[in-house]
Design brief:
Helix content is about 20%, strand content about 25%. The protein has 5 helices and 12 strands.
């Protein structure tokens, strides 16, 4: 099931310029999702392309590769500065890792140096927490902040696709939890890792920053991008 924008919400992004970090990963899908809201989507590969943006998306992909490429293209420090200055940013999957203040299990290079993040979100994440590629799964989530999509029967759940997704192990006092994967009977669980008695945090928000462990851009679920647009406009 997909949740596309209504005729009204399809123009909610009109007049905005939203960048998508286009170094690696599924940036094309995010560009399509952003353009579906009526915003202008711009692939970002160089520091000067950050000028004049109303918001930025860091896509899913390989967090280590995006980290290395951002440094190679002299983007890492400008990104840290823009985030610290208040640029609204949404990170999905690898993007969540790159927005995190801390990584519980950082990858290291040949010299033993741990991967870097752009920071901004006071969270600790664990990479590939739900398992590897073959252990990807889909599930429906209750997601806070989507009241604008309510119907007579309430707010429809978000259909989430997890592909080597991280989860959040710690949130700071200013971080709001938006969605969690609930524990399930292991015999009927949709995810590979048993979660006895513990819900896993998979979507968070703090001020101008939004992050999800999953990939709404690959399912036709546009409401997460619309939430980001509404955050930029000060409507959410």
């Amino acid at each position: 099931m997909t949740n596309s924008p209504s005729a009204a919400s399809a123009r909610v992004g009109s007049g905005l310029r939203i960048g998508v970090l286009a170094l690696q990963g599924d940036f094309r899908e995010h560009l399509c999702a952003i353009e579906a809201t009526g915003a202008e989507g711009i692939g970002i590969r160089r520091p000067k392309e950050l000028d004049g943006l109303d918001g930025l998306i860091i896509p899913g992909g390989e967090s280590t590769a995006i980290d290395k490429l951002a440094r190679a293209f002299d983007l890492a420090e400008p990104l840290r500065e823009r985030i610290a200055e208040g640029l609204p940013v949404y990170g999905s999957c690898a993007g969540m890792i790159l927005l995190a203040a801390d990584i519980a299990d950082p990858a290291t290079d040949l010299a033993g140096t741990p991967q870097q993040t752009f920071g901004g979100l006071d969270i600790t994440v664990r990479r590939n927490a739900f398992g590897r590629q073959r252990e990807s799964f889909e599930t429906d989530l209750d997601f806070k902040g989507l009241d604008f999509s309510a119907t007579e029967t309430g707010v429809p759940p978000v259909h989430a696709v997890f592909i080597r997704g991280p989860w959040v192990e710690r949130v700071g006092p200013d971080v709001e939890i938006l969605a969690q994967v609930e524990p399930a009977d292991p015999e009927h669980a949709s995810h590979a890792v048993p979660l006895p008695g513990t819900a896993r945090i998979v979507a968070v928000r703090s001020g101008h920053l939004l992050a999800t462990s999953f990939h709404p851009e690959v399912t036709g679920e546009k409401r997460v991008h619309e939430l980001f647009i509404r955050m930029i406009r000060g409507e959410a």
